[in-house]
Design goal:
heterodimer; A: mainly alpha; B: alpha+beta; three-stranded antiparallel sheet; 4 helices; about 55% helix
Chain lengths: ~220, ~110
């Protein structure tokens, strides 16, 4: 198949949101093989017509949505696994220093600042990080990286803000929440900031390793 | 053409059996082989094949090798050790199931 035809298939896939290399590679080969096959059995069909036949056989627009949904599930698992492996890498030397830093930073802020101020400072830091990551990676070639940015909010919400919200809720001047608990939650927050900052690059390297041959 | 709902529970087993016989294959080749080998009776929705392949890969039944063919990337699937065991076990189970169904379909 000629280059302009491959480009036409790429454009066609992009129309159905299949535009990242890691989800596109297999379908590009599928459609190129299908079109070649169709044109061999029906030589009177033009490239465009053969592509339309391949489109119908594939299942049309609905099939692309289904394909992308299963890809999403697979990629979400990979993102979670990578975040876990980055977090675990901080248990060895010298990564453990980051953990210690997170604990010390949490201790200092919880000791000297009111819990509300800690909450809003962390909130601002996470919003800043989310914006930075979004703009840094918005043109990524890999779906894996795009999903990790899309999932950012969920991780932060469940691991940091839900516990912090509960701390604030149960914190009162008469009965303040345990400072150990507060230090623990804030330390997780600071640690997560570091882990999340490293995630997109790690995922991008992983995807590049796997798809270094693809366009 | 057969009712496609019969295929739903058996597609993964059919893929495993096919790869056990053929060694390694790519997506489109698997679709074609399943159609041809079933005398065009099995019409798999092409979009259904890839999620099935990805699931088998995620469960460790399939391993993937990537190669450049005519300037584009092609993923070749082959059975892992776990996949070889699964292909044989699931193949036997499917044969037993087909026999049981045939038995039930026999006129009394």
């Amino acid at each position: 198949m000629e280059d302009p035809q491959i480009r036409a298939i790429r454009r066609y896939l992009a129309k159905y949101e299949i535009k990242h290399i890691d989800v596109r590679a297999e379908l590009l080969d599928h459609f190129a093989s299908a079109v070649t096959d169709i044109q061999k059995s029906q030589p009177n069909l033009s490239f465009k017509e053969a592509l339309m036949v391949a489109h119908r056989r594939f299942g049309g627009k609905k099939a692309f949505t289904k394909y992308l949904n299963t890809a999403k599930e697979k990629v979400n698992k990979k993102v979670a696994k990578t975040i876990g492996s980055i977090a675990l890498s901080f248990l060895g030397w010298p990564g453990v220093l980051v953990l210690l830093f997170a604990l010390v930073a949490a201790f200092v802020v919880v000791r000297f600042l009111p819990l509300e101020a800690v909450y809003f400072s962390l909130l601002l830091l996470f919003i800043g990080q989310a914006l930075y990551l979004y703009f840094e990676w918005k043109n990524t070639d890999y779906y894996l990286v795009k999903r990790s940015i899309s999932n950012y909010g969920w991780y932060v919400y469940f691991l940091v803000f839900l516990p912090l919200n509960n701390l604030l809720l149960f914190n009162s001047t008469n009965r303040p929440v345990s400072s150990t608990l507060a230090i623990g939650v804030v330390a997780i927050g600071v640690f997560l900031l570091v882990v999340i900052a490293k995630t997109p690059r790690k995922l991008s390297e992983k995807a590049a390793e796997q798809y270094d041959l693809a366009d | 053409m057969l009712n496609n709902s019969f295929l739903k529970g058996t597609l993964q087993t059919l893929i495993l059996r096919l790869l056990a016989d053929r060694g390694q294959m790519y997506g489109y080749q698997i679709i074609k082989e399943l159609k041809t080998n079933s005398d065009n009776l099995l019409h798999i929705k092409e979009a259904a094949l890839y999620p099935a392949l990805h699931k088998l890969e995620a469960h460790g039944f399939l391993a993937v090798e990537q190669r450049m063919i005519s300037g584009r990337l092609r993923k070749y699937y082959h059975l892992s050790e776990k996949g070889k065991t699964a292909a044989s076990e699931q193949g036997q189970q499917l044969s037993a199931f087909v026999k049981a169904v045939q038995q039930l379909l026999k006129p009394l």
